[in-house]
Amino acid sequence: MKRAAAVFSPRLLLHRLVLRPLLRVFFGVSVDGRENFDGLEHYILIANHNSHLDVLLLNYILPGRDILRTHVVAAREYFSRWRVLFHSVDYLFSPIWIDRVSKDSDPMQAMRERLAAGDNIIIFPEGTRGAPGEIRAFHSGVGRLAGEFPDIPIIPVFLHGPERAFPKSGGFPLPIWNSVTIGPPQHFAGSSAAFVATLETLIRELSGSAVASRHRRAQVKAPPALVAVMGVDGSGKSTLSHSIARQLSAAHEVCLVTDGLEFYTGGLQKDIRPLLAETVRQHIGTYAKHASSLKHYKVPKLAELLLRDYLLGEAGRWYKPDFVIQDGSPLLNLVGWSILYREAAFNREVCLKALKLLSGQDASIRRGDPIFQDFPELLALKRLKHAGMFLPDAVIMLDVNPQVCCQRIAARGERVQPHETAEKLGKMRNGYLRVCEVVREDLGIPVLTLTGDQGMDEVSRLALGFINTSMAEGPAHD
Q: C-alpha distances in angstroms, 148 versus 112, 116, 141, 262?
């Protein structure tokens, strides 16, 4: 049967522009086996069932052309208890409503009608949501339906993550990563009972394959080495960060935290899963860049740095790289930036106290300490119990004349930010150099200071040699 032309409706736009992006941002989705939809005009989708999130995930993997003509089988008596929920689900997913309470109705009749009309259906052969991680015995209905429509293939799908992100007993969904494994299409063969058993076995095999894959990815590894590339705007630190990440990835897996989150392996950048913290950080960073003054720049920049620091942990957790290269260090930048706002109070002792306080290394700094009078933001962070920011294992400081930096910034042809003047960049340069001095001499973290005079190739060579030497005995946080 030929597929009807796609219809652009409000419901389709809601799926494409709202539901799918929200699902990807808040829960994250990785999909294996999309190619199993290739060439299929008509199909029945089956999956394990542990969560109401399952329906969203299965709609997420549908080819866009099939969204309006694919219908999930759902229990009317359950959803009809909440009028708003029922009408929302009815509009968004156009389900095949079945009544599991009435003994007079044939729950399969509506499915037959949809399939005969050329539509696709989604069935959960377990019948209802099971306990987290449990695959229960399949009901016989899917086998009978497959026998009646033997030309329509069955696509088995295994869902992992919804049972933790939004379990049956959970009141609120949690932002936990989800994965979808799509198996090859299956055509009816043998008896109905034998085919159901085959489908159940396939789902369990997909489960085992997904678990094994996750175990391979989750092998215990040492925490990634954190390398911070420091420098004022226009110094070339972003270019150097990218160069280091790409070259290190020839032999290692490397995450780069810059204006975006990037992943490198085999000398190439790879596509990665989007993370909620990264999406939020980018929006806040964009807002900060359009601030009209240092006063308006301060709060969004602080928020962006805190999210960037959080992202360091998320990058290590999700991608398990050997190295995380930081285009600037959230912690070191935060301390160094304070020179723009409290230059008279900025000194070596303040730098050391702030670094220890924010990294959680010294809990003995009390609220009466003078540092909180000079830098009230630190007190606010302490009250919020925000301590434990990441100290890098090695620091590369790219020290370039602020006048040269301003020339480079002007050559970009972009909006000049409030701090991008020779005077303010000069102060920041002094702040960063002081922070690097404290990091090296008081905290024992290796620091390499380079100038931009050598050219980027030479700077990259020196930086890589420094990293290899510094990491020879393992990162400092091991």
A: 9, 10, 11, 49
DSSP-derived pairing of the beta strands 261-265 and 254-257: antiparallel
pLDDT by residue, tens only, the chain of 478 residues: 444 444 558 888 888 888 888 888 777 788 888 999 999 989 999 999 888 889 999 999 999 889 999 999 988 887 888 888 889 888 988 999 988 766 667 778 999 999 999 999 999 998 887 776 778 889 999 999 999 999 999 999 999 888 877 876 656 677 677 889 999 999 998 889 999 999 999 998 888 766 545 544 444 467 899 999 999 999 999 999 999 999 999 999 999 998 888 999 999 998 776 666 667 767 777 767 777 777 777 777 778 888 888 888 878 877 789 999 999 999 999 999 889 888 888 999 989 988 988 888 766 677 777 888 878 777 777 666 455 789 999 999 999 999 999 999 999 888 888 888 999 999 999 999 999 999 999 999 999 999 877 888 999 999 999 999 987 655 554 4
Measured in whole angstroms, the distance separating CA 253 from the mean position of its chain's CA atoms is 17
Give the Cα separation of 375 and 119 in Å (integer): 64
* Inter-residue contact 399 to 232 (CB < 8 Å): no
Amino acid at 99: D
- Order of strands across the sheet with 447-451? 268-270, 261-265, 254-257, 323-327, 225-230, 394-399, 447-451
Cα gap 129→108, rounded to integer Å: 19
Q: Per DSSP, what are the bridge partners of residue 227?
A: 325, 394
CA angle 155, 100, 129 (to 5 degrees): 50
pTM above 0.90, yes or no: no
